[in-house]
Amino acid sequence: MKIGVPREMKNNENRVALTPAGVLTLKNAGHEVYIETEAGMGSGFTDDQYADAGATIVPTASDAWNKEMVMKVKEPLPEEYDYFYEGLILFTYLHLAAEPELTKAMIDKKVVGIAYETVQLKNGSLPLLTPMSEVAGRMASQIGAQFLEKSKGGKGILLGGVPGVRRGKVTVIGGGVVGTNAAKIAVGLGADVTIVDLNPERLRELDDIFGSKINTMMSNPLNIAETVKESDLLVGAVLIPGAKAPRLVTEEMVQSMTDGSVIVDVAIDQGGIVATSDRITTHDNPTYEKHGVLHYAVANMPGAVPRTSTIALTNVTVPYALQIANKGYGQACRDNQALRKGINTLNGFVTYEAVADAHQLEHSSVDNLLK
Ligand SMILES: NC(=O)C1=CN([C@@H]2O[C@H](COP(=O)(O)OP(=O)(O)OC[C@H]3O[C@@H](n4cnc5c(N)ncnc54)[C@H](O)[C@@H]3O)[C@@H](O)[C@H]2O)C=CC1
Ligand SMILES: CC(=O)C(=O)O
């Protein structure tokens, strides 16, 4: 199969969909890989390293996009929609529930959209989302701590406090991969950490992992209102796979926070869990203020640490890309149910129910279309 890797276009998105090691793996299996020139530079991989691994370096984005399968990191931007064509296999993060225009473009052009974030194993875990959630979760507390500094617009609190001065309060809503990693760093900084989740089993596991270093809390509107009000830093880390994020933190709850508090809504890529997370921000201009509270809503947080993130991402995506390239997407998805769950659009239909629901579009089952 011919596989193209364009350079990422999102603001400060320095990740790339393949490393030279990934190229070699695909090349050794008999596939041809085309890398847009300088696509790997932001992650520290040169054109020469890709060429040595067997890739063909192509001069323009369109030379990478006109291949049978395109591998990317982030969802295509509107200026990339013109590259779509019927039958193109697009393997990348898509976040379609939060992207009505992209969904429409992929349906209109009959793109085979396989979303990293909805590939799902039998146990419910999301193997192609997990490493980036680990990165974003760890970054969330680090970033929150930074923006709590006075010069950055925060209230001037050191999360760990010092002897004689109380510690900062961190609330993490959603105790999955992002939430656990955010909590690890916040606990490491010495903060007073509360994790809120809807799943009692998960709360038990978190209690086992962290012991008395954190507080756990069942997710309901009263508990959320109470803990948000007291928080210096709030991290949004809820996910319902494929669906738009539920708005669990209301505008009134944000108003109840003290001035200079910080919200890092990591779930912004699925629309965000905070009512006042009404826009996506960029690494260039990452925060805005509403009701005296700083909001950080960057949808590609791992793009800021591209070397770590590219290697972590491609460690997990390449084995799936290899299956698609070796067998074609149809057979690969018939053989691998986890990969089948990644198909969000096919033959001009939305095939992921939560995405169809988010846009009130007709949903067609992958099984009907994958004959
Ligand atoms: N902004 C960015 O750059 C990045 C964003 N993300 C996003 O972060 C979000 C979280 O991802 P993961 O941690 O990997 O998901 P996960 O599936 O590991 O965890 C989600 C957690 O939310 C909990 N949850 C569900 N409904 C809830 C409710 N009503 N109240 C409280 N908890 C609830 C679940 O029980 C689960 O523990 C996703 O939207 C993901 O796409 C991930 C990586 C980077
Ligand atoms: C998961 C995601 O959206 C990211 O890594 O950018």
From TrEMBL:
Gene: ald
Family: Belongs to the AlaDH/PNT family.
Protein name per its UniProtKB record: Alanine dehydrogenase
Listed GO biological process terms: L-alanine catabolic process
One MF annotation (Gene Ontology) recorded for this entry: alanine dehydrogenase activity
Pathway: Amino-acid degradation; L-alanine degradation via dehydrogenase pathway; NH(3) and pyruvate from L-alanine: step 1/1
InterPro entries: Ala_DH, Ala_DH/PNT_CS2, AlaDH/PNT_CS1, AlaDH/PNT_N, AlaDH/PNT_NAD(H)-bd, NAD(P)-bd_dom_sf
Alphabetical list of SMART domains matching this protein: AlaDh_PNT_C, AlaDh_PNT_N
Active site: H95 (proton donor/acceptor), D269 (proton donor/acceptor)
One GO cellular component, as annotated: plasma membrane
Reaction catalysed by this enzyme: L-alanine + NAD(+) + H2O = pyruvate + NH4(+) + NADH + H(+)
Biological classification of the source: Bacteria, Bacillati, Bacillota, Bacilli, Bacillales
PANTHER family xref list: ALANINE DEHYDROGENASE
Binding-site list for substrate: R15, K74
Enzyme superclass (EC): oxidoreductase
Its EC number(s): 1.4.1.1
Binding positions for NAD(+) per the UniProt entry: 133, 197, 202, 219, 238-239, 266-269, 279, 298-301
Domain (Alanine dehydrogenase/pyridine nucleotide transhydrogenase N-terminal): residue spans on this chain: 4-136
Keywords on record: NAD, Nucleotide-binding, Oxidoreductase
Coiled-coil ranges per UniProt: none
Ranges of residues in domain Alanine dehydrogenase/pyridine nucleotide transhydrogenase NAD(H)-binding: 148-297
